[in-house]
TrEMBL record:
UniProt protein name: Glycoside hydrolase family protein
InterPro entries: Glyco_hydro_beta-prop_sf
SUPFAM superfamilies in alphabetical order: Arabinanase/levansucrase/invertase (SSF75005)
Signal peptide: 1-22
Key word Hydrolase present: yes
Keywords: Hydrolase, Signal
Native organism taxonomy: Bacteria, Pseudomonadati, Pseudomonadota, Gammaproteobacteria, Alteromonadales
GO MF entries: hydrolase activity
Length: 357
């Protein structure tokens, strides 16, 4: 008989009763989840079961594309805000910028309109790379959250390139810009106490406009000074510009006791329930997504399969990294899943869109 995961929430943190997690990134992901060689049973979310065929978008020669965030404009068109940079994939650390493209349908084809935000240069916290955008309409404004870094300042920490990653926010009256940063400083800083889980970096923002009128900013932190694991938390503000106050139950999603991690969460509400879809970093398999649900946005369920690998949705044979899930909502329902996907005809990286049936 298969062992079944027993899960519960303790102080807002997700805990498993199993002794270990195992996932092999080199092992093909099976159609039948019962074939997984894991010490517990894995179930597939209703969200994952709704996903149909996928299509690469924004395949551009000499460009890497990442983190495609969609929104429907007042013009009825599909607008995407995404990261792009030239050179090798590692250049995202120093050369990424946020660009804007439009299409008549989520599957494209897309017309690239140009750069929206780029690094501000020496003397700024976001001097070098601008990356991982997520876009939402807030009242009569458009809110574009992003991450930035200043590589020269890494020596003030431990010298690692990630140590200066922080979250920023830019607002605009129009999807066509201009987008203006709301502050000279990050919108969410690290904790000054190295014993805290988010004292090293704050990154990968996901905004939820709560029904109570608050702005809930979910984010990833790397607990590098303690257990070296990546976890998810939330900070809450009354105004879109902040200040964002970190929740006392953080981190909300934490698999560190099993030496497993997650990142790239996107949070949305459907049928009065909270959903968190994110990139799996080994809980089930390093190339799939996880889906958690919640009644309050703080205490989260056991993870289910959120999405399968790229080979399940395309005629591609090589499993590639597929990250940064972003959901297009239409009439209160999730209608498309947008992802970043390595590879493509130029062997760089592209956007990827999946329709939800």
């Amino acid at each position: 008989m298969k062992n079944i995961v027993k899960a519960y929430c303790l102080m807002g943190t997700f805990i498993f009763s199993q002794i270990t997690f195992a996932a092999n990134k080199n092992h093909p992901f099976p159609k039948d989840l019962s074939e997984l060689t894991l010490p517990y049973e894995v179930t597939e979310s209703a969200f994952s079961k709704r996903l149909s065929t996928g299509k690469r978008i924004l395949e551009q020669k000499n460009w890497n594309v990442w983190g495609t965030s969609p929104i429907i404009g007042d013009d009825g068109r599909i607008h995407v805000f995404y990261s792009r940079w030239r050179g090798t994939h590692s250049k995202w650390l120093s050369h990424s910028e946020i660009a804007h493209a439009v299409a008549d349908t989520p599957e494209g084809p897309y017309t690239v309109l140009g750069t929206v935000l780029s690094g501000r240069g020496e003397g700024h916290w976001d001097a070098d790379t601008i990356h991982n955008p997520t876009i939402q309409k807030v009242g009569d404004k458009y809110a574009l959250f992003f991450i930035g870094n200043n590589l020269a300042n890494a020596t003030q920490y431990d010298g690692h390139h990630a140590s200066t990653q922080r979250i920023g926010l830019a607002l605009s009256d129009s999807l066509y810009g201009p987008f203006k940063r709301v502050s000279e400083q990050p919108i969410l800083e690290v904790s000054p106490n190295k014993e805290d889980w988010d004292s090293y970096l704050t990154t990968n923002p996901a905004l939820l406009q709560h029904p109570n009128g608050e702005f809930w900013l979910y984010y990833k932190a790397w607990d590098k000074y303690n257990d070296n694991m990546r976890k998810m938390g939330v900070a809450i503000a009354k105004d879109i510009k902040g200040p964002y106050i970190k929740h006392p139950k953080n981190p909300l999603v934490n698999f560190a006791q099993y030496k497993k991690q997650v990142e790239d969460a996107y949070v949305f509400i459907e049928n009065n329930k909270f959903y968190m879809i994110m990139r799996d970093m080994g809980v089930i398999h390093p190339h799939v997504g996880l889906m958690l649900d919640s009644d309050d946005g703080i205490n989260w369920s056991a993870p289910q399969l959120g999405y399968r690998t790229n080979v399940d949705f395309t005629d591609e044979s090589k499993i590639q990294r597929m990250e940064r899930p972003q959901v297009l909502m239409q009439d209160g329902k999730a209608s498309y899943l947008f992802l970043a996907l390595m590879g493509g005809k130029y062997d760089t990286s592209t956007g990827f869109v999946l329709k939800l049936n």
